[in-house]
Design goal:
The protein has helices at about 1-10, 15-25, 35-60, 80-100, 105-125, 135-155. The longest helix is centred in the N-terminal third of the chain and has 25 residues, at about 35-60. The chain is built from 6 helices and no strands. Helix 3 (about 35-60) packs antiparallel against helix 4, helix 3 runs antiparallel to helix 6 (about 135-155) and helix 4 (about 80-100) packs across helix 6. The model has no long low-confidence stretch (mean pLDDT about 90). It has one domain. The chain is globular and about 55 Å long.
């Protein structure tokens, strides 16, 4: 499990998700509508910004450092988990965009896979002992609420397009 969680946690890192978003947008620029790209990129960046602002406002210390950690303890505050917020926002936005127009069974598979990644990233943060479970729950809630609000905002702004 150590190796699995050591690597899966990176699926919540802005260092992986931001280049992935740019790459997906570039590769699929003719397929993905501009509003969809705004949802994915805005979801990721907004959740990251919100998580880091909340970390500063709440200033909750990280869990007590223990020996034999698999990763270096991050130096910022603990609450909420930015990795979980970012993974939630990115993968929920990705599921919204990619499942639209698919056959129901395939759309469900997309949602389940994205959900499993979100849960795995959240669990990895607790397993690696860099977050409390409440940090992860708050991060997931933040990412979910942010993408929901952003999706509604984009739909209102581009109500004629039907692609948000």
């Amino acid at each position: 499990m150590d190796i699995f969680f050591f690597y899966i946690t990176w699926l919540g890192s802005i260092l992986i998700l931001l280049p992935t978003t740019v790459l997906v947008s570039a590769v699929f620029r003719r397929v993905i509508h501009l509003t969809d790209m705004c949802l994915i990129l805005g979801g990721l960046l907004g959740s990251s910004l919100l998580a880091h602002v909340l970390k500063l406002l709440i200033s909750r210390p990280r869990p007590t450092v223990v020996k034999d950690m698999l990763v270096t303890m991050p130096t910022d505050f603990s609450f909420p988990s930015a990795h979980t917020a970012q993974a939630t926002a990115f993968f929920i936005a990705l599921a919204l965009v990619t499942s639209r127009g698919l056959e129901a069974k395939i759309g469900l598979i997309v949602w389940v896979l994205c959900g499993l990644v979100i849960v795995a990233v959240g669990l990895s943060r607790v397993y690696l002992r860099v977050h409390y479970i409440s940090d992860v729950i708050a991060g997931a809630a933040l990412g979910l609420v942010w993408v929901h609000l952003l999706n509604h905002l984009i739909r209102a702004m581009f109500s004629g397009g039907g692609h948000a």
